[in-house]
Specification:
The protein is of the alpha/beta class. Helix content is about 45%, strand content about 15%. The N and C termini lie far apart (about 75 Å).
Length: about 230
């Protein structure tokens, strides 16, 4: 007996719902094991020095040394905060294949942005959309990984300044992640078992009157202060 168009539509809708549920369940399971595994292998400890882990919309900005640093920062957040926080990642790396895309989109609920683009579109628009929807974000203002052991921070791009200007009421919290170069050296696929620290600092003060260069210098100095505190 042939099914009616309505029956076919219901069947397709049911299959799509089941597929979405299965994908979501797998993503949550992978996120759980990735979070636990990363913290176990790296011995990560979280230090909330300048703020408290409360469910408040924030822009967490951090130093960028490894592909797993956003995982360590993200996994340092309590569950209720983690579900409302999106890591920002480079599309040229995380969209290279289907598995990476599944990880960043479905497992970590992340945002991908294009670092190298030919058109004049705003690369931060997906980030701004997430902030307008009430999400917190994990942001790396250096724009790329710092693989030079002799340089503490690469020069910040203008993205953090632009977000501050457009969203002045959202807290901007510096986060210093230590030992990432040694935990996940270039070319490694499995983290080395070394102690790592994720240190959360004081939210930046509002400085809407600052020009871009002064604000970026201020944000960099506030981040580097956390390295000094963590080493004390």
């Amino acid at each position: 007996m042939n099914k009616t168009p309505l029956q076919n539509e219901k069947k397709i809708a049911l299959e799509q719902t089941q597929s979405h549920f299965a994908t979501h369940s797998i993503a949550r399971l992978i996120a759980f094991f990735t979070r636990r595994g990363a913290r176990l292998l790296t011995g990560t400890r979280s230090l909330w020095i300048g703020c408290q882990p409360v469910p408040k919309q924030r822009i967490y900005y951090a130093n960028h040394n490894s592909h797993i640093d956003f995982i360590l920062l993200w996994s340092s957040l309590p569950t209720i905060m983690r579900r409302k926080t999106k890591p920002v990642a480079a599309s040229d790396y995380w969209l290279k294949d289907g598995f990476r895309q599944f990880l960043i989109k479905d497992t970590f609920n992340g945002i991908t942005i294009q670092r190298n683009r030919d058109d004049h579109t705003d690369p931060l628009q997906p980030v701004k959309d997430a902030l307008e929807q009430g999400y917190s974000i994990i942001f790396f203002p250096e724009g790329t990984r710092n693989l030079n052991d002799d340089i503490e921070l690469l020069p910040f791009k203008s993205g953090l300044y632009n977000l501050h200007k457009q969203f002045p009421d959202i807290e901007i919290v510096p986060v210093w992640i230590s030992n990432l170069r040694r935990v996940m050296p270039k070319g490694a696929f499995i983290p080395l078992p070394l102690l790592s620290t994720v240190c959360f600092g004081c939210p930046l003060e509002q400085h809407l009157d600052m020009d871009k260069d002064i604000f970026i210098d201020y944000a960099q100095k506030q981040l580097l202060k956390l390295k000094e505190v963590e080493n004390q």
